Amino acid sequence: NAGVTQTPKFQVLKTGQSMTLQCAQDMNHEYMSWYRQDPGMGLRLIHYSVGAGITDQGEVPNGYNVSRSTTEDFPLRLLSAAPSQTSVYFCASSVQGGRYGYTFGSGTRLTVV
Amino acid sequence: SQQGEEDPQALSIQEGENATMNCSYKTSINNLQWYRQNSGRGLVHLILIRSNEREKHSGRLRVTLDTSKKSSSLLITASRAADTASYFCATEGSSGYSTLTFGKGTMLLVSP
């Protein structure tokens, strides 16, 4: 079992560029989420999905889009990168939401210059 | 907004000692979870305690939950250098779809 796989691990973008952070899980989990982690801020929820075709906004959704066409994949799109989006991004998945704990990917460290 | 607040922000102990971290939260919850994060890595789920439970054990971990005070504690007994990491509490709210809200974490340093 690979668990939750995030790609790329590192990325540098210029302001205004767009990109997609990939997230895939092979555990048939219904719930998937994207978080960003900034120094001293803990993890903040960006978007989440409770199943294929269903997504919703979290605490900090501005500047990000998501879609969930399959159970396995939950990509996060940055539409026009800004320096404020410099962060470490984590994807997580779970069966039935957080009731049994989430499995996290290893993260994508994004720098926007 | 952050739901949980861990205390202390940083904790430094010697191997063999016990480490206690506390978490306070603001709204009603279904459960509270603790996660560990090693430097530069993803989070690892440690233990989950439901709102109707008061104490739970897993190996060297002991978690308590006091819903009347909206607080939880994580005790790591007989700490090892490998326990050095950041520890986060996360709460699942009692309404709507279940998502986790994280605190800012406690950084634990265990010295040999």
Outline the fold blueprint.
The complex is a heterodimer of chains A (113) and B (112).
Chain A: E1 4-7, E2 10-13, E3 19-25, E4 31-38, E5 42-51, E6 54-57, E7 64-66, E8 76-78, E9 87-94, E10 103-104, E11 108-112
Parallel strand pairs in A: 2-11
Antiparallel strand pairs in A: 1-3, 3-8, 4-5, 4-9, 5-6, 7-8, 9-10, 9-11
Chain B: E1 5-7, E2 10-14, E3 19-24, E4 29-37, E5 43-50, E6 55-58, E7 61-66, E8 71-76, E9 85-93, E10 100-102, E11 106-111
- Helix content bin of chain B: under 10%
Radius of gyration of chain A: 13 Å
Q: What is the mean predicted local confidence, pLDDT of chain A?
A: 93
The profile of the biggest β sheet of chain A is: 7 strands, mixed
- What does the oligomeric state look like here? heterodimer
Number of H- or I-type helical stretches of chain B: 0
Helix content of chain A: under 10%
Shape descriptor of chain A reads: globular
Q: Quickly give the structural class of chain B.
A: mainly beta
Number of helices of chain A: 0
End-to-end separation of chain B: 37 Å
Q: What pair of chains forms the biggest interface?
A: A-B, 29 and 25 residues
Shape of chain B: globular
- Helices and strands of chain A: which structural class? mainly beta
Beta strand % of chain B: over 45%
**Biggest sheet statistics of chain B:** 6 strands, mixed
Element-by-element helix/strand order of chain B: EEEEEEEEEEE
Task: Tell me what portion of residues of chain A adopts beta-strand conformation.
Answer: over 45%
Descriptive tags:
heterodimer, A: 113 residues, mainly beta, seven-stranded mixed β-sheet, B: mainly beta, 11 strands
Q: Can you describe this structure?
A:
The complex is a heterodimer of chains A (113) and B (112). Chain A has strands at residues 4-7, 10-13, 19-25, 31-38, 42-51, 54-57, 64-66, 76-78, 87-94, 103-104, 108-112. Chain A is built from no helices and eleven strands. In chain A, strand 5 (42-51) and strand 6 form a beta hairpin. Chain A is mainly β. Chain B is mainly beta. The N and C termini of chain B lie far apart (37 Å). The chains are: A mainly beta (113), B mainly beta (112). The interface between A and B is medium-sized, with 29 and 25 residues.
